Amino acid sequence: MKVVIVGGFGVGKTTMVGSVSEIRPLTTEETMTQAGVGVDDNSGVESKTATTVAMDFGRISISDQLVLYLFGTPGQERFWFLWNGLFEGALGAVVLVDTRRLEVSFDVIGRLEERGVPFVVAVNTFPDAPSHPVEALRTALDLPDEVPMVDCDARLRASSRDVLLTLMRYLHSLALPA
Asked: Model-level pTM?
């Protein structure tokens, strides 16, 4: 099974894949250079020094016959053309959100809705991030009530696992006859 982890620049996608993968994740992190100045918006994450330029990949074995493949996408819009291949065959997605920069999530969610990809929203809890009630976040992100929204700490394996379990439960509920 294939799941994609998406979100804006610097929301914790690489961190989530790394924290939950049973293998050392494959990452395509590269040092940020002057070439991105004026092209990439790093407001709110100015101390970030590396960025994903293609994808992150991790794996979780559920059983001998069932494996969950995790693909983390690049967050900068200039790399979004890579999403086409990453979404091929995906069952669903996790949208990671940073409450310090909610606006970087709008286009991400819009792209998933346009593609018809089922997703859950995981609010990554950064230490200096403001906390908002779930309903306020849901309204700000214009999310339908049926889309699950959970808090997480992408650095913690158990928290990232719980996000993936939320996605699996959601996908299962969509597959049930109405």
From this structure: 0.84
